[in-house]
Structure formats: C-alpha cells, structure tokens
TrEMBL record:
Lineage of producing organism: Eukaryota, Viridiplantae, Streptophyta, Embryophyta, Tracheophyta
Biased segments, Polar residues type: 989-1002, 1025-1040
Main localisation: membrane
Organism of provenance: Manihot esculenta (Cassava)
Protein name per Swiss-Prot or TrEMBL: non-specific serine/threonine protein kinase
SUPFAM superfamilies: L domain-like, Protein kinase-like (PK-like)
Record membrane topology: Single-pass type I membrane protein
GO MF annotation, one: ATP binding
Amino acid sequence: MVDCFGPSPLDPDEGSRYWKWMEKKKTKARDGGILRISPILIVLMLQICRVDAQACQLPQAEVQALREIAAQLGKKDWNFLVDPCSGESSWATPKPESMLLYNNSIFCECLDGVYHVVRIILKGQDLDGMLPPSIVKLPFFKELDLTRNYLSGNIPREWVSTKLEILSISVNRLTGQVPSYLGDITSLKYLNLDNNLFYGTVPAELGNLVDLEVLILTANNLSGSLPQNLAKITKLRDFSISSNNFSGKIPSFIQSWKRLERLEIQGSGLEGPIPSSISVLTNLTDLRISDLLGEGSKFPYLRSMTNMNYLMLRSCGMAETFPDYIMKMANLKILDLSFNKLTGNPSEPTNDDALSICLSNNLLSGPIPDWIITRARKGATDISYNNFSETSVQDACRDNLNLFKSSSGGNNLKAVECSGNNACSKDRYSLHINCGGSEITIGKLRYEADKTFGGEAQQISLKDNWEVSTTGRFWDMKENKPNMFIAENVSILSMNNSELYTSARLSPLSLTYYARCLANGNYTVKLHFAEIVIRDNRSFQSLGRRIFDVYIQDEIVLEDFEIKKKAPGVDKVLITPFKAVVKDGNLEIRLRWVGKGTTTAPQKGIYGPLISAIDVEADFKPPFDWKKYIVAGAVVLPLLLIFIIVGTLWWKGCLGGRISRQKDLKGLDLQTGSFTLRQLKAATNNFDSANKIGEGGFGSVYKGELLDGTIIAVKQLSSKSRQGNREFVTEIGMISGLQHPNLVKLYGCCIEGSQLLLVYEYMENNSLAYALFDSETSSLMLDWATRQKICVGIARGLAFLHEESTLRIIHRDIKATNVLLDRDLNAKISDFGLAKLFEEENTHVSTRIAGTIGYMAPEYALWGYLTEKADVYSFGVVALEIVSGRSNASYRPKSDAVCLLDWAFILQQKGNLMEIVDPRLESEFNREEAERMLKVALLCTNASPMIRPTMSAALNMLGGQKSIEEVVSDPSIYADDMRFKPLKSHYQQISHGGSSTSQVPIFSSDDTGVGSSTTSGHDLYPVNPESTNLNFSETSPLSC
C-alpha cells in the first residue's frame, strides 16, 4: 500500500457509520489477544514498505484504467506524470483543516512485485461526471467511496464483474431505479446509497448479498414494500431506510437479522405497528423508529436489549403506560419517546448524569418528578406538552429543561416561575419577530430580537408577551452546541430587507412561537422564509432537502413544506400569509420535522424547520382609547404651562446651567427615551429611601416601577458633583447607541433643573460581587454552569465594546460590582461613564486615570497607557474571582501572597492551580472548563499587554474553539519587596481597623484628583466595599 499504513477511508471526525463498522471489525480481529508491536518491529516494517515501494510498479493497464476513471468522474487534477501509487499529493492529498468533508486518496497493494489499485476515496470534491464503469479494469479493486459529489446517472452494469466489498456513493444526484444486478456483486459487505434520487421498489435481488453487513437506503424516493428476500441477509448489522415513500407495514422478517446493532426507520412511509418480533434483536444498540402511518402501536418489549445506547420511538401511536424498565437501561445515552400518548409518571433513570430525555407531547400526569428538576444540567430533559398537575416549579427556566405547556393537558402556558406574573397589562394587536436575529426596524415595523441561542430542550422567554420553545436534538452529532439552533447565511444576500434574513431560528424537531396578550379576534399571520444554508449551485452543497410541517393554532397550514422548492431557489424570500382566530388571547405557531428530507447534506445537522421572521397583525382596528387622549391632554397642558414659565425664566437669564446641559447634549443622536421628573418620582415613590438599592460617589440608585409595569433602576446623579455634568453627558453619548444582550440597557434620561438622572433596566439579582462575595445576605449559590455562562457573557459584552460596536469603547472599570445579573443570571456589564471613545488610528489614550485598585492593568495605573488590553486585564481578574469565589481586592491568602491574583501565579508555578477553585462548589464542577477559565484568566492578567489576548480571542478560548497559549507570567512585579511596600502597608491599615469607607484621591495623568468612595461612583448596585482607590506616585508599584 502507499505509505504502508494508509489512512482510513472515511474520517472519524465525520461520525461516519462506516468508521464505526470498520472499528468493530478491527476489534473482532484482535479478540484473540492484545496486539503488541515493538519499536524495532515497526522500524523493520517501514523498511520493508520502502523496499516494496521501490520494487513495485503499477501496470500500464491499470494506469490507463485510472485515466478513463478520471475522465468519467470529471476529475482533472490527477498527475499522470508520476506513479499513481507514489503517494504524490495529487494522488494522496493531505486533508486540509478547513475542509472537513474532503478526502482525495488512492491506495495500492504490492503483490509479487506489482502494484495494484485496491481503494479510491474521492470525497467532497463536487465531481460532476458519472459513476465510472472502468473500475472493472482494476482486477484487485475492493473499495470505492465517492461521498459528497455531484455525480449523476445510475450504477454501471459493468460493476457486476468487480470484487467490490465497500461501496459508498451517498450525497450525489444519482437517479433511476436501484438496479437488480447490484445483487450480483456478492462480495459486497458495505452498501451506502443515502441521499440520492433513486426511485421505485427495492429489488429482491439484494437478498443475494449474503455477506452484506451495512445497508443504507436513506433519503431517496423509494416506494413499495420491502422484499421478503432481504431476510436472507443474516449478517446485517446496520439497516436504514428513513425518509422514503415505502408502503405497507414494518416487515416481521427483521427478526432474521439477529446480529443487527442499528435499525433506523424514520419518516419511511411504512405503517405500524412495530412488530413484536423486534424483541429478539438483543444486539441492538441504536434503535430509531419514528413517524409511522396507520394504526397505533404497542410499546415493544425491549427489556433484553441491555446494550441499548440510543432509543427513539417517536410518533409511533403508542397509547399505554410509560414502561419504567426503560429508565433502568444502564447504557442509555439518548431517549426520545415524544409525540405519543404515553401515560403515567416516569421514574428516575439509572444513568441520570448524561442521559438526554425527550418525552414531549404525551399524556404524562401526576406531579412533575423532583428528579427532572434537580438532575444535572448536562442531561437535557423535555416534558413539554404533557398533562402534569404541578405548575409551580423552582428553577424551572434553567438550560436544558423545557416545561412549556407541561401541565393540565397543555392548556397552561408553562410553570409560573418561568414568566413571572402572567397577567397582561394591556391588549396587543400586533407582533413582529426577527427569528434568530437582532432587533431591527423596517419601514414602520419594529421587529423584536430573538437572538438567544436555543437547545435540545429550551424554553426562551424574552418578552412578557411572547416566547419560544425548542424540542429535539441533532442526532449523530458529537455535540449539540447552542449556536447550532440559529442558522446564519452562508453567502451575501441581495434581496430587499436582507437584514431580516441573514439569520433564522432553527430546530431539529419542533419549534414553537407563542404569542400572549393579544386582543381576541381575526388576525393575519405572515411567515417569512428564506433558505440561507443549502445552496443551488453545481455542488453537493445543493443536494439537501429541508422538509417540515407548519401549524397555526394546532391546524396544519403547510405540509411537506420545502422552502427551496416553493421560493423557488435559495436566498430568495417567501412570505406566506394565513388567517388565524384568537379566542383566548393566545396565538401558537408551530413548525415540526417529521423525518422527511435529508439529514446529511451538505453535512450532518442541516435539517429541521427554519424560519426567518413572523408578522402578526389584527384584521380589526383597536378600540378608540379615550383615556390616552385624556392623559395626553393632562400631560400637554401642564407642559405648555411649564414651557411658558421656563421660556420666561430663560428670557430673564435664570437657566444658564440648564442651557449648558442642553448644549452638551446636542448632537449626541440619542437612541433613548426621555423621562420627566414627575414620572420618575411616581415610579420611585418620590425617591423613597425604602426603594434605594445602591449608593455611589455620584449619587444614589433607586428601584422604580413605571405605569406599564416595567421595573427600572434610576441613577440619581448628584448635582453637587463638579464632574456630574460632564460624566452625565459622556455616559449618555456612550450608552445610547449600544444594544447588546450582555450590556445593561439604558431606557432613557431626565434633565430638569439641577436633576440629572439615568434610567436603566432593572437587574433582579444585583451584582456579581453580591452573588459571589456577600454570602451572608445573598441567597444565590452560583453553580458551575452559571459561573461559566456569566464569564462567557462578560467576555461577549467586552468583545462587543472593543471590536463590534460602531464606536470602539474602553470601559476602564471592569469589576465584579459592575457586572449585574438579570432574572436568569445572565451577565450584563454596567457603567460606561468612565469609558472613552478612541479613534481607529490611535494606539492608546492618555487621559485621567479612572478605575478600581485590584482590577487596573499595570501599564495604565503606572503610566496612564490605555488600550483595550486594560479591560482584558480587568476581565482576567474577574474571571479568577468567578472560579475562586473570592475577591481579588479583599482576599488575603495565608501564604506570602498579597492578593488572589498573586496567589494564583504562585499556584501556577507550583502546578497546583486547581487549588484555587471555590470550595463551595465541592466536586460539582466541570474540571476541564474550570482549568480553561483559570488559564484564560492568567493569560489575560499577564504583565505585558502585548501577550494578553483580545477579548474575542479570550471568548473563543473560553468556549474551547481556540487553544490557550501557555505563558507563565513573571511574578516579580508582585513580589519585589521594595516596590510592594506601599501596597502592603495600605492593606495592613485596612486589616487593623483602618476605615474602609474613607475617600482617597486617585492620581490622574492630568493631575486632577477625583474624590471617590470605596464603591465606584458608577457602581449601579454596589455591594459591601471591597476595593479602594489608591494615590499612586510615579514609582509606586501596581496593586494586584
């Protein structure tokens, strides 16, 4: 063979069933004992291979056959000036990292001094010819893999004379009937015709392939019943016929396949019931049957299948009590029994940690079991659309748990805790959603954002009047990552309003949009579709078929719907209008995959319903609202009077300060609302001290509630602050144009007299510092998954500020108190009042130093050198605090280390870095993620800003998409006694009763001292003070 030890024909990274089949064959070949090969033997084998390679030559007849094969396939890059068995790059191309589906290999064997071609693998090359008849001229040929090309025609009759053992021609555009003479190639062991256009019946002659172990006929247009002759293939291990148009019942002769390990019959067209004889297939590890037609089916007896890993019996019409023994299968990894009529209450599974469970759309009843609520987050659980009696569940909105309509036969919206108060504040008459995208405005319509990543069991409640439910996982994928549930366009879009179609919401099984608070009556619903993933060029990228059904108010409105066919074409908009009646204030739009179409083209995971946008508009005019006009009059008349009074005062020169502020605000192009002082007084009960939730150097922060029920946080800036005017105007200018899920939203502002106020969204769970450090008063206990989500959220917010927003912004005061947590414990960065814009060409900004000791980067604190790497440093400190649960500013290690960061560097040098993990987590954390976060934190806090990564790079490192550079920082910047002495003295003062609330001036590069309390003047929800601003001289060391 070329290189003697040639690569496997199919890449294991692709998750190929062929690869698994080959691995099992290799394992069985080694069952007699453990194969041990010494290094000397390996060297000898390699030497023999080199000698053979020099001695062997490929006969000219086979070279000519390869020329013919190239011409027939349309392959033009084979270099016939060199020996095809030489391993030269045109014959055995190394696989590029960027082309995961590509393979270009030819394999030869040297027999009696002569080379013979035995295997050809040409995958992912878009070859547009036909299947080559000339392989019959290769007398020792055994394997052909032409997966993912653009080949047409049918299987050549000439192949009957070959000794083919492995044939994979999946994901092409081959047509015609499956030829009966295929059954004459009796040497076949592996046959894969998946994802083509074959039609007609399965020939009975395939039963002659008695050595066949794998038969895959998925995603064609095959019809008729399965021939009885297939029962003769008794060595069969893998049989798949999903997504076809077969008729009749599932044949009972499958009981003949005693060796069967994998059986897949999804959306095949076959009818139930599932034959009881399936129980004899005790070697099954993967059983998938779904979307059966005809009568219902009884739950098959599977108790003897102890090796079962993957079990899907979806939409099989099973109406009986849930079989508890299923939950006792110790090796089970994925269980999908959705869309049946199962009753009862499932017991706790034996393999609870990693088991993914989907029991959606059944009639399960009784209280929701505690194990469903408390089980590990890594195991997804979906019990949506059931008949459970319990509607109040603690922590019901966590990831990987879907309780949507899980109670009272699906009549209730969901568990109360997921949406808070379900009462509607007012009737609504329209709704516009940009599915999978950001908030945008097109004409007069404002499309609400729907950008939160989904999951296999996810319930997303973004607004009080609508939410999203996603059910199902992408099977045969190593991992179902959250971003897989939002599709992004793969080419430049040219249609009108293209921003509405650059992304779309996607689900592998069921996707529901649920609108609430609509006035009863008739509505027009417009669903926007555009196929932005599958292509329409001469490539395997165009061979996918996305087929699904659409329901509105539980009535099917689109059946076997394919966007590409109806548009027609890809990247083309299709808007389908429908009429709907709202009777109880609710409107449900549901998209569902029923096993039809393709699942492997252009690659695995490209299937399931996809939708770009939704319009809902009432067909009637809203009733005339007299109250609105009365209120408007009540507001306008006093405003008119105020305008007259203010105009008089201005005329007399009494409003210089106000005019100054108005001049400051001119040209800021604010994207926020304007509030009156009366509104904010009413919202906060006249700034009642009982509503005060924070105190900062520039004023107080109050919790308030607007008339529409919106909870807000009002920052009342002190009019006595000599910096107040400038800070106020700067902050509005910075924040008004910024919209990101990980930034605190600014609702608006108020300027009246000496009052300067900012109105923010309210964060229910205070700050990260409060959750991590204030264990005495905080009821939150952040588990590891939440900490990981918070850290990633902070990184996303900073990456947006640094690299994605139209105005590049340096925050300058990233710390735990400036990271707020919303109801779902999502991290949101607050306080941009200290941030400064910087131009694209500037390498740094040198202004007055502003920040908090313990979080400031050394180059900024010592020399006023400011770049975005200063924020990266602060992020690293916060990431370290998240892992350890300790504050860098106040924690004093027992060792000689002076702070948390110093201790981390010492542990890193000793190789004991994991000792720093928060002991409150005990062993309940992901060690790999924790170690990754610690390494990212230490890289971000490197003393050299050049070594620190950008925030986007740090974000990729946290997610595991990018490797982490191993850099051990020089701890001398922290350990030098002479330079460290002032800092140690300062900490000793604090430790021996020094005031923690005294105000200390901070050095600034423009020699301006800024008074600051221990809590930054911009801490929106400050916690007990744990950081202090210091006065630096030019030779002072940097604090940790």
